[in-house]
Amino acid sequence: MRLQASELLRDHRNVQLLRLLRDDPRLGTSELARRVGMSAPAVRERVLRLEEAGVITGYRLDLDPAALGYPVCAYVRIRPAPGQLPKIAELARRLPQVVECHRVTGEDCYVLKVYLPGLDQLDAVLDQFLAYGQTTTSIVQSTPLPARGLPLPTCVSGS
After folding, report:
1. Using CA atoms, how far apart are residues 136 and 19, in angstroms rounded to an integer?
2. In this structure, how many other beta carbons lie within 10 angstroms of the beta carbon of residue 123?
3. Are 116 and 122 in contact (CB under 8 A)?
4. Which residues have C-beta within 8 Å of that of residue 5, sequence separation ≥ 6?
5. Which H or E run includes 32?
6. pTM value?
7. Which terminal residue of the chain has fewer beta carbons within 10 Å of its beta carbon, N or C?
8. Which domain holds residue 17?
9. Residue 67 within a domain
10. CATH code at 106?
11. Counted domains in the chain
């Protein structure tokens, strides 16, 4: 029987495991087991169930864009011309500078996150999207709060 995510998240140990993995995805099963006071096989089984239920969808490696030669970050909003909506998502998938593409509500249908080696590279990226609609760009000056993990549920039971 496959458990639903909501059932798994009612268990405080599962939430504790998620919190530990969110804060440090490199923790091994033995260390996780030690921190939650369970056996390694029991922890392995719980993590597997969380993965199967779609609560854990992958493990990520965060890289510093500036260290990789991409110090410029910009958000690009795109308002497609009539009939051009699917072409924008297709182009975003092809361009390695685009690291996120979100379809959103409002007059602008897409918001893209783009990393570039320099500001002089921005026109080349924007020009490709201008073939399909209007763009509005915001350059990131600083990031006072980098991406962080989602808040996790609070369990009332000690199960």
Report:
1. 37
2. 10
3. yes
4. 53, 54, 55
5. helix 29-36
6. 0.81
7. N
8. 5-52
9. no
10. 3.30.70.920
11. 2
